[in-house]
Structure formats: structure tokens, C-alpha cells
Amino acid sequence: MTELVDELLDMLDLEEIDRNIYRGRNERGRPGRLFGGQVAAQALVAAGRTVEERGTHSLHAYFLRPGDPGRPVLYSVDRIRDGRSFTTRRVVAQQHGKAIFNMAVSFQTAEESYEHQVEMPEAPDPDSLPDWNERAKQMADRIPEESRAWVPRPRPIDMRFTILPTYFGGEPSAGQNLVWFRVVKPLPDDGFLHQTLLTYASDMSLLDNVVRPHGRKGPLGPMMMASLDHAVWFHKPLRVDDWLLYVQDSPVAAGARGFARGTIFTRDGELVASVAQEGLMRPAQRPEDRSQ
To answer: N or C: which end of the chain has fewer CB within 10 A?
Structure first.
């Protein structure tokens, strides 16, 4: 699995092909469409290449078209503003001559500030929970058909669930879900790298929370799911090679859209990031619509 981390880091090392224009490689062997976390993380890398000595404090992204895993992605960066405390960038990702994704990113200098946070909920120790590969083996005969092409694949990020996701064959359930995650290999002391990898990981399980109350085959039939937008706020420095607790829920679904949110804590209880995502969630009309 450490080799998978190296592949992930290599994928995030974008090729600069002109000023403000970068090319990204895709995850190998991924079926269907591009993973949204990959595109968001690469877009953040592209924006970060144009900024010095400021950390990311927030990003807001929209998924416009499905990405093609068979073609590289081009990222163009618009240097919107360089202020005294904040820097703003806009990134557009393109394939086949069309925009598939855009993102606004804000960077900030480090400042002294007032602080408060909510308490981290009680959670089981991550070592007491099965890892991704163990879950995949346990649930091999229950993984939904539309998930079988990607769920059993080994991952560079270990995720351990207190409530089994529906793409593993989990039953309908409501309320909060707690997910521990970490990169499976020690990483350099590079704060921006850790923010980029958290952006990648933040898209790995959040949207399933809008499916869980209904199940993948709810009363209206199988669902068609797609990410619409994704936002991350970074509150404090973090490390993704240490365990992080992703506290997730979905307060509402309506209008063929489901909304999910998450807060991310260190193992010591520091709240380091918050996430929000909305996804398209409608009854599938065609067989090809039924894949996540």
C-alpha cells in the first residue's frame, strides 16, 4: 500500500506546460469516470503553484461534467487577487476542450486569533475497526454490482467506518457517521501537501451520507448519484499520516439533491477542517445512470 501512496503523490505532482497552465495524470485503472477528489486535489496543487508563503484556508468547487479517466486533465489558474493577508485564485479543469470542473481557492497568511471549537464526539479506537481491505473481503458477496469495479481496489488512504457505507452493502440508516482515515505512509513536513491529501480524502465517503437514509435501492428505485459541488475550510495545521476523525451527516435532501457535511478532528480532539458537499440524487432512468 505504500507504493499506492507514492503513486498518489506522483499524480499530484503536476506538469507545468506554460505559465498558469498545468497537466495532471489520472489514477491508473480507475473505471467509469474520474474521482472528484483527484480533480479537486490537483486543482488545489495548480493554485498553490502560483502562491508563496500562504496556506490554504478554503476552497469551493463545482463539478461540471464527468471526467474521462483515459485523458489527462488541463488546469488553468487565474490569479485573481494578491492582497496583504489573502490571495485568491480560480482554477478551471478541462478535458476534450470543455470545462469539467472549476474551483475558487483562498490562501491566507498565518495570524494570531481568538479560538473556540465544538467538542469531538466519542468514537471507537481506529485500531478496533476493520480497514478498507478487510471490509472489502468481509462484504465481498454484498457489495452492490455497480460498486464492484472499484470498492475492492487497495487504497493509499486507510478508511475505517463505524457505519458501513451503502457502496459496501451497508443497510439504510440515519444519523451521524464516524470515519477514521489516514495516509498509510509517513509524509514530509509539508503543510500544503497535507492539505492537498485531505482534499483528496474528503471526497471519499461524504456523499454516501445522503444515500444512507434511503438505501441504494430506495422506494423510488435505484439512484443516480453525482457530485455537484464541494467545499473545504482549513482551520488549523494538520497531518494526514496521523489518524483523523471525519464526523459526517446529511441534514437534508430535496429537489433531487442531497446535502452532506463533515468536521475533521485530530486524534487529540482538535477540529482542523470542515467540509460540505451537495450531490445530485435522483431515481435512475437508465441502466448507465445507476453507477455512483
So the answer is: N
